[in-house]
């Protein structure tokens, strides 16, 4: 399709003072023969915007290049049909505000950016959103307090819900409790934990279909089109749903591993979960001999905050113990209660309940470390501790010891299960002895994951959510706690993070909202966070696919499945539009209508590379558009100058960087390439989880290319940068340019 | 942002009060699920308290990173209308059918502003920067923050010199209108989310801890600005009295919190916040020593890893102790603390260059409509049942950023439910 490109150049905000905009217009008109090219001194103003709209209405133009300020600003003023071909060229923040005005190099920079914008727009095509029929029903996995809440709250917003519980009854752990922590003012009285009303409401709700004693045997498809196969009493039922809330809860930490705290020594050392049942059953008796309990000692962090057990804090045990102390005193006000803690953790308004329990005359709390729990005379237990507030070693003799054991998420490690299955398949394939032995070893290592599937996703990357540290399928983002690496599937409650039942109910609300939202956005063919409302999606030119599987393996969101041969099978609704698959593909067959390997390659080619004797090096900088690019904008706003030899290309994610661009750039005479992306590693800041890390890994392969071209490896540099490091970015650019000048010009110039 | 959010009669309309992390989240989450949202913010730009922070715990990542994504989500979403320098004066009606009267104060800078900054060059007057908690000054016309959303300058008219109109003349885009008047808008909504956030506890009320009396006693929120590259010291942590680099820094936890005389509740975030600020000091000054005096270190869940990481630094010492007295050495302006080390049952005297008070969170409920029910501490108390008014974030409970986001996402669902109910019955 021949586009009718309109190029609109703004000369306001010192762009006109820094640049010769007439010469810029000549680039558009003479070099690219664009049918319409207009300049205006205030393009974002009413009159300027009308210029664009008028040309569009009259049909003189159907695609627009706006060469003005950063695409991050004036989005409202320049808002056009989101499906239309449009490109912004940043002449203000990235040229006029950071370069010497009326300088030859500054002009060359602006002209290159304009060329790059025009060629990209020429290659772009209008977007056509996917618009299949989608289901807006929500599957809730787990019928405990979180799942029940998610189901009822989603239904209350008008959405159909399928609630699946593995046990025979709904209610989960909270359903077995008598009382819960005080969540309402005045925060001093335990609240009843009765879930009967919620169970009743869910069971008879016209929008909720409840399945108990039911397992999920398969979840296939994608957001808006998940087909979930359930197995109940030998029958198979298939439901189509749009999104999933995973609320599979927790299990207590295995107390048999806590022998050092006396568990197993006598029946009078119990866990907090066991104590809960004892206290609910009636007057407290010693399990060993049925004698009345006159004194109880609670051991906090039994397993939690312990590198040998659970390194994390289970968050609820302090409050649970205070509740238990309260329950002891409700039965017997004189019973002695000892609480031995590392730190008492009762955040927010819970502090008031802590104060209340602490003020009971028979409650004694101290920081301390348990040294030993032994049997004592009269069927009692002797607890020795150190580092208490009372000085050195202390011994306390009590009837009952309660271990405040922590929470372990009921999650399944989708990635490990997949590796296990891959290894098992490899063993069967019996390729060579060494390969088989390696696979057997791997399968043995991962044996514990056998049969642990929960969602049974038919995803190439594994049947369940990828887990983060300690088994939680939690987000790793401070700002986006519901982010998971499987689009449309949201973890909630204690499987996501240790939390109490009240927090779990609130968490269920948020997760249900995210589930609802993902179906609503899918219905419009739009992406979810972080590229919310993006309507582009990748297409695959499969005739040229070599089944290398890089795309199916590298997608952080498990978007792509594959057939037996390894050909990728796209699932557009799972896609987050980051372009990581596009960066991974060595055959360059993956492209978006407005973002492709060819478009960027053409942009690189559009850069005018001066001859060697002109002594004007050229360096290409690929920047993450989410963090590094805004940082450079802010540098521009602060009028921080940097070397004019660089040409910036923003990428959706650094992970969408295809190494062919580097080869193209270097073989075209570009002197160096810089990649600026987000921090990776444990505390990664990449919005697409793995993008910047993958880009870095791909660079390993570039070294071969450099060797082949006999170029210095220092010509390529990858940098991790946070958005607030805008002062550092120009320095990094200048330092890199110094290095490039030192190395000398690329010998491929002029070829 | 462009269209009037109260357009369609059957639209699911939500009003969000407060444009900090909770309000931004509630607005976007509701809008992306199909609601029409009006977001009302008192300040000239969004971001609230988080925008003024240097880094988040535990990842030590800059808040601007997440805000950038959220602002991008807002820019591309015509279902969100943002009103800045705006306050809800009155909320009438009932769940499903609220009418809010919103007073929009004049910005004196219109949407035509391009952020070119020519006005600042000519402005002869200065104002104290609220963004920097008064630690710096800007011109009377100013950009509220580097990544301000909306991306417009603002003018503090009270700070202008009499009769001055230099900025008007300097603006090539006619974007400054000194005659702008306050406007009153009416916003109808099915549900209201109060996300008005928090204010730091006034540390000068804790008289024994020396804030306001000793030059080198600062609060944790001031520390965030001192450590921030966009702050008054461009990110250099210097002590206020003499601009010297601190070699010894102490933190006092629960400055006001967990104290019947001040805030009886726990502010929930201060422990992790001080651990985080300890990393600011340690990374800026490798020789510096940090001491944290605490009652309990409260780092729930996986924040425990962060606690373990920071406390593993031999130059960071944690002492369970109660700070009894803080004095200033009149000659050096050093801060002298008297502390009771409760674990070892002894008194310690410590001299430090800089003292940081981990001041607590006070709910910001000023200006909330009478519909809000408050608990005894002043936090919005979300009563169970089908109401149409929900508190979210720190106005409801002291909580960290990710808990705030979680809470605000949940509140967006409650609002959606209410909107759906009213759309069906209304």
Characterise this structure.
The complex is a heterodimer of chains A (751) and B (426). With 751 residues, chain A is of the alpha/beta class. In chain A, 31% of the residues lie in helices and 21% in strands. In chain A, strands 9-6-5-13-24 form a five-stranded parallel β-sheet. A five-stranded parallel β-sheet of chain A has the order 15-22-16-17-18. The radius of gyration of chain A is 31 Å and the shape is elongated. Chain B has 426 residues and is α/β, with parallel strands linked by helices. Chain B has a seven-stranded mixed β-sheet with strand order 13-19-14-15-16-17-18. In chain B, β14, α6 and β15 form a beta-alpha-beta unit. Chains A and B meet through α6, α10, α13 and α17 of A and α1, α2, α7 and α8 of B.
List the helices and strands and how they pair.
The complex is a heterodimer of chains A (751) and B (426).
Chain A: E1 5-10, H1 15-18, H2 21-31, E2 36-40, H3 46-57, E3 63-68, E4 86-90, H4 92-96, H5 104-123, E5 138-141, H6 145-156, E6 161-164, E7 179-180, E8 191-192, H7 196-204, E9 208-211, E10 214-222, E11 225-232, E12 235-241, E13 243-246, E14 250-252, E15 269-271, H8 272-281, E16 295-302, H9 317-331, E17 336-341, H10 350-358, E18 363-367, E19 369-375, E20 381-386, E21 394-398, E22 400-405, E23 407-409, H11 414-429, H12 433-445, E24 489-491, H13 501-523, E25 539-540, H14 550-554, E26 561-562, E27 568-569, H15 580-584, E28 590-592, E29 595-596, H16 597-606, E30 619-624, H17 628-637, E31 646-651, H18 659-667, E32 672-677, H19 691-709, E33 716-720, H20 728-743
Parallel strand pairs in A: 1-2, 1-3, 3-4, 5-6, 5-13, 6-9, 13-24, 15-22, 16-17, 16-22, 17-18, 30-31, 30-32, 32-33
Antiparallel strand pairs in A: 7-8, 10-11, 11-12, 14-23, 19-20, 20-21, 25-28, 26-27, 28-29
Chain B: E1 13-17, H1 21-32, E2 36-40, H2 63-75, E3 80-83, E4 86-94, E5 97-104, H3 118-122, E6 126-128, E7 137-139, E8 141-142, E9 154-155, H4 166-170, E10 183-189, E11 191-194, E12 198-200, E13 217-219, H5 220-227, E14 248-255, H6 270-284, E15 289-294, H7 303-311, E16 316-328, E17 335-341, E18 346-352, E19 354-359, E20 361-363, E21 389-391, H8 401-425
